Amino acid sequence: MRITDKDILIFTKNLAVMVKANLSLAQAIKTQIQQSRNPSFRRALLDITRRVEEGEKFSTALERQPHAFGFFYVNVVRAAEKSGTLENNLEYLADHIETSIGFKKTLTSALIYPTFMLCAVGAVAVVLGYTVLPTVTELLASLSESPPLATRMVLAFTAFLSTYGIAVIFAIVACGVSAYFFIRTPSGKNFFDRAMLHLPIVGGLVRRVYLARSAKVFATLLKSGVPIHESLAITAGSLGNDAFQAAIRRVIPGVLKGGTVSAFLDRKLFPPLFIQMLEVGEKSASIEKNLDFLASFYQKEVESSVKNLFTLIEPILLVIVGIVVLFLALAVIGPIYQSAGQ
To answer: Which listed residue, of 50, 123, 158, 331, carries a Cα 20 to 30 Å from 9's Cα?
Structure first.
C-alpha cells in the first residue's frame, strides 16, 4: 500500500502535539504506529522507532525511508535538531503538507471533467469507426453517384480506418511509450520541463505553480532555521522542474559571496513582483513573511487560472462534440435527401 501525503500529514500533526506535550520522541512515534491504518507506513515507523531507540538521530532515521519522507522533510527536521525547535518545525511541515494537498486537489478536480470529455469523444469516435460507419458505407455510396462532401469524407475515413486502423493504434501507443521513456532520461526531462513553460496558456499556469511551490518551500526552510544557501539548495532539490532547479542553484554562489537572493534570480523565470517582494523582504528582515505572501498569491493565481481554463474548455468541448454530431448527421442524411430529390 502506497504511503500518501495524508499519512505524512496526520503523522506530522500528531507528532508535533505530542512533542510539545513533552512526550519522548520514540513513544510519540509508537503511538502513531498504533493509529496508522497503512501497513507500509507502519513498517516505516517501526524501523524509525527502532533506530531512534538505538540512539540514531531522528533525521537520519527518516532519511532511511525515502519512499515516505523526502529530501525537504528530512532537512527541516535536521535543522530542528540543530536549533532545538522540533515542535515548531513539525508545525511548519504540517502546514506546508496541508497546503500542498489542497493545491493538488484543486488542480486534479479541475482537470477531471476535460479529461473525461476528451476520453469520451475519443471512445465514441473509435466505436463509430469500427461498428456503425462500416455498416452504412455501402448504403451511403449506393444512394448517389456523387455524394456530398461530408459523406465522401466519412467514406474516406472509414476506408482509411479499416485499412490502417490497427497500424495507427500501434503507432500512437509506440509514440506514447517512446515519449514516456524519453522523458525519464535526463536530457528528455530537461527538454520536457523547459517546453512546458513555453506552451500557450498551460505554460503560464505551470510557471505559477512552481513560483508558488518555490516560495512556500523556501519560506518553510527559513522559518525552520536552515541557512539561506542550504535553503536554496533544498528548495531546488524539492522542485520537479529542471529549469527552476537550475535557476535557483545558480543563486547559491552569489549568496555565499555575500550577495542577496533577489540580485541573482533569473529574470526570465521569476517575474518582477516575485523579485521585488523578495528584495523588500531582504532589506526589511521580513523575507519569510514576504515569501508566504508570494506563495499565497501565486496559489490563488493558479486556482483562478484553473477555474478560468475550466470555464473556457467546457463550452469548447461541447461545441466540438456538437460539430462532430452535426457532421455525421449531414453525412448520413445528405445522400438520402439527394437521392430523394433525384
So the answer is: 50
Q: What is the three-class DSSP state of 42?
A: helix
* Angle at 89 (CA atoms; ends 84, 95), nearest 5 degrees: 170
Say if residues 150 and 331 touch (Cβ distance below 8 Å): yes
- Pair 203, 164 in one domain: yes
Looking at the domain assignment, is residue 149 inside a domain?
yes
195 shares its domain with 294: yes
Give the span between the Cα atoms of 328 and 157, in whole angstroms: 12
Task: Give me the CATH number covering residue 203.
Answer: 1.20.81.30
Question: Does residue 151 sit in the same domain as residue 218?
Answer: yes
Q: What is the pTM of this model?
A: 0.73
Crossing angle of helices 5-20/86-127, nearest 10°? Answer: 170
Count of Cβ atoms closer than 10 Å to residue 27 Cβ: 11
The helix (H) or strand (E) run that includes residue 142 is helix 133-143
Rounded Cα distance, 48 and 35, in Å: 16
CA atoms within 13 A on the CB side of 323: 6
Q: Do both 104 and 63 map to the same domain?
A: no
The per-residue pLDDT string of the chain (342 residues; one tens digit each, 9 = 90 and over) reads: 788 888 999 999 998 888 888 888 888 888 888 888 888 899 999 999 999 888 889 989 998 988 888 888 888 888 888 877 888 888 888 888 888 888 777 777 766 777 777 777 777 766 766 666 666 666 666 665 667 777 777 777 777 877 777 888 899 889 989 988 888 888 888 888 888 888 877 788 888 888 988 898 888 888 888 888 888 988 888 887 889 999 999 999 999 988 889 888 888 889 999 999 999 998 888 898 999 899 889 988 888 887 777 777 778 877 877 887 787 777 777 666 666 665
Among 15, 20, 17, 40, smallest CA distance to 30 is for 15
Residue 143, domain member (yes or no): yes
Query: Which residue range forms the structural domain that includes residue 64?
Result: 5-69
* Total number of domains in the chain: 2
Tell me if 58 is assigned to some domain.
yes
